[in-house]
Amino acid sequence: MADSEWTVATLKQYIDREFASSKEAVNAALAASEKAVLKAEVAADKRAEASNEIRAAMMDAQKHYATREGMDALSKRVDDLVNQQNIGAGKSQGVGQLVTVGIAIAAAVISGLALWFHR
């Protein structure tokens, strides 16, 4: 067998050095991981704030939306006004026809009187 340069002492030094370097690597990875988590938490908080602002804006806008009850009442009021206008238009038309008939009768009476006295 060939003489090995490894002894128990050198093997212990090698393992201790490897363990220390891997421990440093793990610590560096943990630090980077914690930093990434903090950044992700900040980003999530910003998204939550933006969502809350949008939600609040939508709720504020909804306060100005028409309700079903309000629209039903408005529709009924418009229908009532249209009916009143139709009734009023019918009365106006009836009055107009009455005046026309009255003028025609007056014209006929005057013409009849004129013919009667003209003889």
Based on the model shown, name its key terms:
119 residues, mainly alpha, 0% strand
Number of helices: 2
Structural class: mainly alpha
How much is the radius of gyration in Å?
51 Å
Shape: rod-shaped
Amount of helix: over 70%
- Strand and helix order: HH
Which stretches are poorly predicted, pLDDT < 50 over at least 5 residues? none
Main beta-sheet annotation: none
Average predicted confidence as pLDDT: 85
Distance between the termini: 169 Å
Query: How many structural units, i.e. domains?
Result: 2
Give the strand content: under 5%
Query: Care to count the β-strands?
Result: 0
SSE blueprint:
Elements: H1 8-62, H2 68-118
Explained architecture:
With 119 residues, the protein is an all-alpha fold. The protein has two domains: 1-65; 68-119. Helices cover 89% and strands 0% of the residues. It has two helices and no strands.
Concise description?
This protein is mainly alpha-helical and 119 residues long.
